Amino acid sequence: MRRVVVTGLGVVSPVGSKIDTFWSNLVNGKNGIDYITYFDTTNYKVKIAAEVKGFNASDYFERSEARKMDLFSQYAVAAADQAVRDSGLEADKVDGTRFGVYVGSGIGGIKTFYEETLKLVQNGPRRVSPFFVPMMISNMASGLIAIRYGAKGPCLPVVTACATGTHAIGEAYRNILHGYSDIIIAGGSEAAITELAIAGFINCMALSTTNDPNYSSIPFDLNRNGFVMGEGAGMLILEEYEHAVKRGAKIYAEVKGYANTCDAYHITAPDPETEMPALAIKSAAEQCGIGRNDLSKVYVNAHGTGTPLNDKCETMAFKKAFGEGAYELGISSTKSMTGHMLGAAGAVEAIVSVLALRDGVIPPTINLKAKDPDCDLDYTPNQSVRKGLKYALSTSLGFGGHNACIAFERMEDDEH
Length: 416
Known about the structure:
Blueprint: E1 4-12, H1 19-27, E2 34-35, E3 48-49, H2 63-66, H3 71-87, E4 99-104, H4 110-123, H5 132-136, H6 140-149, H7 164-177, E5 183-190, H8 195-203, E6 232-240, H9 241-246, E7 253-262, H10 275-287, E8 298-301, H11 308-322, E9 330-332, H12 335-338, H13 345-359, E10 361-362, E11 385-386, E12 391-398, E13 402-409
Parallel strand pairs: 4-5, 8-9, 8-12
Antiparallel strand pairs: 1-6, 1-7, 2-3, 5-6, 7-13, 10-11, 12-13
Helix pairs in contact: 3-6, 7-13, 10-11
């Protein structure tokens, strides 16, 4: 088996669209949630979201190029561009056939879908853009990234709802681990804060209706009543260890475990028995070599959406995976600050996990005020915590019963 490491990071998020800004804001508990500015919410029960602020497409694309891309693809390519630059990778100097892209989206180009549908209804079929289909389809983010960097190896767009980003990273890890590729850009992207998507999530009773930016995305709080929509993208450069060392790349962490399971239970609700998410968590931890005596050195970035069932069931899954040792874990949900970024969530939270290992800091779950007896683990309320960390786990649970967990280990100083 080969070793797989993280050599580059890139992010577009509601709390910052550069890695340093993003991480500083999370550690300091900055809230990226506010009132929706993209459209008039007068007739909507939900009026808040975690929008990306200050994103400038011209930093990454010519205007003519950006016009042919849905916003989710723009976010994806921008985050990939940051990650490639961060890694020091010179794409024209690597074997393109062993260079891949595993980038997914839970929903894809819904903004384009909505806008082009309005054109069709209001003005007829001849007004629909010739770029409608390539802008809309969920695989286009991965395709555009591959084109940009000449990545001619495997190109796989994962679509597993809120588990998309974690699955993309995990499957990329396995591809490199088993020798098929040397480098893969992996992650997820989403830009679904639109009239149609917000209405759909409201009507399936998934979103918080509190409409207080500082007390709506409140994972593990007794008064939680739904998630807050977020958007953005997260990208990681995964690389075979010897390949990274040979080119002198800096190494953030080693990927050491990954598992995915399915509840096979319900289209939206988690299985209350929580056996399958617990199995994914336990399996990833075991692959990483995390034993009972190591749990105090583990950070867990929880899925932690703020829905009543998710947070209760995820707490149960941690207890099933680790027994009484679950109380020693340092856990937080950064969705309290970023909102739920759907297909991008797992990728952005994997980045959080890697940076937590690098700096020995657990970012907080902000606005956690009322303790829920069903969520009684250490969820790092309101203030970040410095801790000697060796391992990190990031969990994701998606509509359709998709469960995923990725495990990282901090690299020793003499290894990078």
